[in-house]
Fold this sequence. Notes:
This is Four helix bundle protein. InterPro entries: 23S_rRNA-intervening_sequence (IPR012657), 23S_rRNA_IVS_sf (IPR036583). The chain is mainly alpha-helical. 81% of the residues lie in helices and 0% in strands. The protein is built from four helices and no strands. Helix 2 (30-52) runs antiparallel to helix 3 (56-82) and helix 3 (56-82) packs antiparallel against helix 4 (88-112). The longest helix is centred in the middle third of the chain and has 27 residues, at 56-82. The model has no long low-confidence stretch (mean pLDDT 97).
Amino acid sequence: MKQFEDLLIWKDARSLVRLVYAYCNNINDKSFTNQMQRAAISIMNNIAEGFERSSDKEFYRFLDIAKASCGEVRSMSYLASDLHYMSSDQSRELEFKSRLLSGSIYNMMKYLK
C-alpha cells in the first residue's frame, strides 16, 4: 500500500467519525459532543499519521493510540445511552463498530510485529 487512504482500517475509522458526528448532532452538551468527536477523529488521524511515519515501529505506536481512542468512543457510547443523549440502538451501533475497528487495528498491530 502506498497511501493511508488505501487502508481498510482508515476507511472504517472515517465511517465511524461520520457516524459519531451524525449521532452527536442533536446533543446539547457540547463538551460531551466535542470529546466524543475528538476521540473518533483521533482514531482516523493516528492511523494516517502512523502510516506516514518512517518505520513499522512508529506505525505500531500510532495504531496503539488509535486503538485506545476506540475504547474511548466505546466508553462514551455507553455514557451517551445512560444520559439519554442517544437511543439505545445508536449507542449499540457505535459500541459495535468501535469494537470491530479496535479488533482490526489490533490485527494490523500483530502483522507489524
